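Exercise 7 asks you to align residues with tokens for two separate proteins.
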Amino acid sequence: MTPEILVPYQQIPVQPIQMDELMNQTLIRFDAQPTTGIQPLTVQFADQTQVCAQNRSWDFGDGMSSNARYPEHIYPFPGTYPANLDMTFCDPDESSD
């Protein structure tokens, strides 16, 4: 039997955080599809943040990263990977691309 790969929807903070960090985490939203499957698992990530943002930084939880808004990532090995998205918020009058 081939092991499954689990890619969590979003990582949930478990340590106390500063208010500005909490605001950023509630503003940053993303989706990943599919979140489980047989390796190699190709996952499509989508930044769904509704505010002006730039300098996106995806961490796929396996040592790989991307700066694209809608990256695709392949998980070649079984495991659980805590995917995360970080970004810088910009002036609303600027472009969000």
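Second protein for Exercise 7:
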Amino acid sequence: MDFDLEKFILVGKFFLLDIDQEEEKTETGLIIPGQIKSIDFGEVIQIGDGVPESSNVKVGDRIFFAKNSAQPVVVTKDAHLLKVSMDHIHGYISKED
């Protein structure tokens, strides 16, 4: 089954984030895939139905969250998506700034 983000509905007090997954190369030439590195930020692509509007976070904002608190939702060749609970958010940068 293919994942269709347009049909996906995020439930609860969560944010769905798109993250950059770049490979890192060590001095000895070892390649470390992006998913092994600890991620702590991402761009909001969907907001769960349980997140109150008073949070002021909008689609397109960049959220900073507690390391290792995110859960992978879908990882495809082109997309690396994480689900993060509203309780683990430290702050955000508005796309309008």
